[in-house]
Amino acid sequence: MQEVTIVIPNYNGKRLLENCLKTLEQQTYKDFKVLVVDNGSSDGSTEVSSEKLELEIVSLKENLGFCGAVNLGIQKTKTPYLILLNNDTETDRYFVEKLLAGIKKSERIFSCGAQMIDFKDHEMLDNAGDLYTAMGWAVARGKGKKCEDFERAVRVFSCCAGAAIYRMDILKKIGGLDEQHFAYLEDVDLGYRARIDGFENWYTPEAKVYHVGSATTGTRYNEKKVFLAARNTIFVIYKNMPLLQLILNFPFILFGMIVKTLFFVKKGFVKEYWSGICEGVRDCHKCRKVSFVGKNVPHYLKIQLELWKNIVRILGA
Fold it and tell me: pTM of whole model > 0.90?
């Protein structure tokens, strides 16, 4: 029985997609299907093929965003595990094998994220799992640091959906990506929901990918990206924090907003940042809020301690 489906969302990334598929052809573990969900590309992406992979391309007429494309891939996945992979990655030949080995270590593990390495400098990290703080900030753990310092598997708050494996039975239980996000922080929200239910997310450094980064948006900071990330910050807070937790964290959230405002004043995107915050407050009720369940109180307490601890880790870095 086939165990894993690799879902690759794509938007006008034909060259990157072709390269990504070539590296998947070299995997030591072979029994997987690749499902490319194309968000209405106009560059011929849907014509990409592979003689060595079991490849299916689903062509959408419009751009549904990362979340919409992934959810369609989830609906079409029949295997016990699903790997989400960005089109702007090159995979190490052990990538699939090591992710499968990692997630099979315990039925309590919801996801395992790969070691994402800077495409231009293979000694530097792009992502080693995500941290989340009481300020509402999500931070890529280890970004810009030496890979050799992050070679140990550890529990993380959430896994970057650019290169991660998920257990489908848990994914069906907690729900897929929230399409209200469109793109950005949807993976943090997904990992957060799993944590509330008591499941774990792990960083698996043996699984490696080389990541270009910002291939679709073009730059690390731009008007749309800043707007969406700011808006989705509010969505994540609203959806996952019950009232008491929100009250506890409000001073930290306010402080985080002040710091971000000063940062984006310097970058020239303060208008987009606050437009996103305002739309997040206005539209957060449209998101799927997590229902508070008494049996999950120990999980909330554990999460809250981690959110406070991560403030110290980020500000002290």
Answer: yes
